Amino acid sequence: MKRVTKVIILIIISFALQSIVLICINNFYRSNKKVTYKWADTSSKKKSSVQVDISMDARNIEVSSTGKFVSYYLGDSIHVKDINKNKDNIIKLDVPISNASISWRIDDDKLMVITKKYSGLRVYTYDPKENQLYKNRDANNEWKLYPIESGYKVTGIEQNNKNTLIYLKLTKNDSKNYSFLKTFDITNEINGINLPIHNIGNYYIFKAENKVVFEDEVDKKIYMASNKIGTHEWHMKPLKIQGVTGLKLLAVDDNGIVYVGKLINNKISTVYTCNISTRTSEGNSNKVEQLNGSWNRVLLEENVDAKHIYISDIGDMYIIDNVNKKVINVKTGKEIAFKGEYKCMFGDSMGGGIISLDGNKLIEIEI
Questions:
Q1: Angle, CA 330 vertex, CA 328 and CA 336 arms, to 5°
Q2: Residue 338: how many CB atoms within 10 A of its CB?
């Protein structure tokens, strides 16, 4: 009998405890208190940006490798703007800017300046931190005049930071379709690259193997040339994509991946990639067999101008949508908004940015 009584008491206590818990829960939800959850939305995190003053008439805007400085042409002068300090300097030259060519160095915030005077080239380095223009001297401490053919001007500079070679594109004055390449070493002379193509448009170098990839601007074909070590001999071969014509060279990254666009009505519809170092295919897109190996194909959602495709040294590909004011990472689909008119990009997904011009404001926003 005692055992039955204990069981009944335990059952009553259990019911009582459950009733108390239910009453507490009911009172809690009837109260005015609210429980909220805050989620960290990393996708909507606001990108940092910097704005500096600049003339609305600025042209040929280019940015240094770190994004700390931009160069631009204004009137008859070449300017360099310190973005962090909003400070503007003019590079003082002894030739008109039509006889000057500039290119930001790959591995620091210094500007290579090549001027043409008489029938030769002079080479300088401009340091924007010190606002100084230095003469580039050879191993004998001489500031040399490097002779070139009369009637030609420098229209392209490609540097190789793995050696001292510079690839120059020379174009005949008043001619858009007569250009050729030369290699240039500050300690030696300018040497020609003996190629049968004299209509060279875009060209890029694969730094690790000292190969140059270039396009025939008239025939819309792509070629690769390599130098026989210790000689001035160059071997050239076409980079063909089976069944695809009308090609535009877009870039060569530091891994030796070449990026080629298919032109439709002067716009890029598809981007093909291939490894010119090992001849192996690259990427996750559909493979397209070609005569000399395998190409990968990246179909673009819309046809775009070649100048609105940016490819970083590590192979990030971005499409610039100037109408909707955004840049899209092709691989991840990530979009970055910008203001004004797109001008250029620098760096990569690990650290880079977009440069745009909005009225008299130059804007840099991180990617």
A1: 20
A2: 25
Tell me the one-letter amino acid at 124: Y
Q: What is the pLDDT of residues 105-150, one digit of tens each?
A: 988 999 999 999 888 999 999 999 999 999 999 888 999 999 988 8
Q: What are phi and psi of 106, to 5 degrees?
A: -70, -40
What tokens does 88 get?
Answer: 């503007």
On the CB side of 99, how many CA atoms lie within 13 Å of its CA? Answer: 14
Q: What is the pTM of this model?
A: 0.81
Question: Distance between CA atoms of 226 and 248, rounded to whole angstroms?
Answer: 20
Tokens of residue 116, six digits = 């043409």
Task: For 147-172, give the DSSP string.
Answer: E--TTEEEEEEEE-TTSSEEEEEEEE
Euclidean distance between CA atoms 353 and 64, whole angstroms = 11
How far is it, in rounded angstroms, from Cα 11 to Cα 31? 31
Give Cα separations from 123 to 5, 108, 119, 132, 134 (angstroms). Answer: 106, 17, 14, 14, 9
The continuous run of DSSP H or E covering 98 comes out as none
Task: Identify the DSSP state of 45.
Answer: P
SS3 content of the chain, % helix, strand, coil (to 5): 10, 50, 40
H or E stretch covering 217: none
Asked if residues 365 and 359 have their Cβ atoms less than 8 Å apart, the reply is no
Contact 213, 224 (CB under 8 A): yes
- What are the angstrom distances between the C-alpha of 158 and each of 104, 142, 154, 184, 252? 10, 23, 11, 10, 12
The token duo for 30 is 């009837």
The two tokens of residue 165 are: 């070679």
Tens digits of per-residue pLDDT, 56-110? 999 999 999 999 999 999 999 999 999 999 999 999 999 999 999 999 998 899 9
SS3 308: helix
* Six token digits for residue 120: 């030769």
